[in-house]
Amino acid sequence: MSQLSVPKDNVLRAKTRNKNKPKFKRNKNQVQNQITQLPETPYLEISPETDEPQSFDPFAEAEEVDLKQAKQIHVRAQQTQVRAKIGKDGKRKPHWVTTIQGLPEKFEKKKIVQHFKKALACAGNIVADETWGEVIQLQGDYRDVFFKFLTGKPGLELSESVVMVHG
């Protein structure tokens, strides 16, 4: 009486599990044959003189592009790690910082910051960045206000395709 009885359900389940598995196995020779039959890559060319593969550069014929002309202005609002303020209604209000990157050097950033500090009653400064140059930072989420200033008639009158608002 040392034998354990196995319910019939478990035996049937075990038999159905094996039906789903593939019935064939690949050996190493079949795998190697498939690898050798791969199509040739178009990026390697063998020259008839040297019989060595030479790399193909698809961008060799491309012309240089003037990046200053295609430069975009990025307007972002970032949530900072500062403790959130609690409003009068008891809800938490996170702290936001709006950053403006890629503004051309022909505009005086200091005057723009002074204008927004007075108009929006917020703090703002100019931060030096390695990749973007001088970046304007304003406290608060003012993406739409700054977009209207950059593209609007009383503002800088830039085209909307140059200004990119994130978020």
UniProtKB/TrEMBL annotation:
One of its GO terms (molecular function) is translation initiation factor activity. Residues 1-41 are annotated as: Disordered. Transmembrane segments: none annotated. Residues 84-154 form the SUI1 domain. The keyword Kinase does not apply. The keyword Secreted does not apply. Gene3D superfamilies: SUI1-like domain (3.30.780.10). Residues 14-28 have a biased composition (Basic residues). Residues 30-39 have a biased composition (Polar residues). Pfam families: SUI1 (PF01253). Keywords: Protein biosynthesis. PANTHER family: EUKARYOTIC TRANSLATION INITIATION FACTOR SUI1. Belongs to the SUI1 family. This is SUI1 domain-containing protein. It comes from Botryotinia narcissicola.
